[in-house]
Structures are given as structure tokens and as C-alpha cells.
Amino acid sequence: MTELNIFKIEYQWYEGDHGETLLAKAIAKEEFEKDIIKAKEFAESLIGKEVSKGEYLGKGYRVDCLPEYYEQIIWFLTKKKRYLICNFDERIRYFIDDSSDKKIEVTISEQKTERNKISRKRNGERTNR
């Protein structure tokens, strides 16, 4: 079985945008660090250049902001270096256990978020809607 390492890449932009991506590949951390530097250099090579349709991601635009740099780095790592994009749902967990009769059980635990607007009734009591 191949053992993959997962690397989390993220950015926080001053306008409030945030992005994060989990990438996986069967390489050591040191190799990943070399690859992400190559990806950064690729993104830097596009700064201020007009990207034609059919090139990077098939988009035509001027490269000049952090979210675009981030997308170029992810593109480079997935398309040129063959990393896999991973999805992780933190709300779901699977538990493996054995029962008293030695049967293996699998249980799913799913966290759900419920939001209700809180308002006051005329007599001062609170209600959920």
C-alpha cells in the first residue's frame, strides 16, 4: 500500500478572502518544500503578465493578486507535479470497535450545526424560530 503525505496550503488576503487546499503525494516533507518553491517561482514568473486563453487554467487575465498566485501554485503542483487534491469533512468520523461477542462494529458520527434566530415575545419571553 502506498503511504501518502498530506500537505495543507492556505492563504489569507487582506480583503477577507481565505483559501486552503489539502494536497497528497507519496513524498517526504523536504521534497514537498522543493516543489512548493518551484510552484512559487512559477507564479512569480507570471506576475504582471497577460495570460492568454488556453494557458494557465484557460483564463485570460492579468496576474496581480494573492488569490491568483495561490491558484497558480495549486495548479502547478497538481498539473505539473501530480499532487492529488484531498477533501476532508471534519464533521464526519467513523469509529471501529468490537462488541462483547467479538463482532466488529463501524459507527458513523456526524456533527450537525443548527442555527435558530432568537427573538423576544411581547411578554419578554424568548423563543426560537
Summarize the entry for a quick read.
With 129 residues, the protein is α+β, with helices and mostly antiparallel strands.
Structure description:
- By secondary structure, this protein is an alpha+beta fold.
- It has two domains: 5-86, Alpha-Beta Plaits (2-Layer Sandwich); 92-128, no CATH class.
- Helix content is 25%, strand content 33%.
- It has two helices and nine strands.
- It has helices at residues 29-45, 66-80, and strands at 5-12, 18-25, 50-51, 61-62, 84-86, 92-98, 104-110, 118-120, 126-128.
- The strands form four sheets. Strands 1-2-5 form a three-stranded antiparallel sheet, covered by helices on one side. It has a two-stranded antiparallel ribbon with strand order 3-4. The chain has a two-stranded antiparallel ribbon with strand order 6-7.
- The termini are far apart.
- The mean pLDDT is 84.
Count, helices: 2
Q: How far apart lie the N and C ends?
A: 51 Å
Percent of residues in β-strands: 25-35%
Give the averaged pLDDT, no decimals.
Answer: 84
Give the overall shape, derived from the CA principal axes. flat
Strand order of the largest sheet: 1-2-5
The largest sheet, given as strand count, sense and whether it forms a barrel, is:
3 strands, antiparallel
Number of domains: 2
Judging by the overall fold, what is the CATH architecture of the largest domain?
2-Layer Sandwich
- CA radius of gyration is 23 Å
CATH names the topology of the largest domain as Alpha-Beta Plaits
Q: Give me the secondary-structure category.
A: alpha+beta
- Helical fraction equals 10-25%
Order of secondary-structure elements: EEHEEHEEEEE
Beta-strand segment tally: 9
Provide the CATH top-level class of the largest domain. Alpha Beta
Instruction: Pick out the low-confidence regions.
Output: none
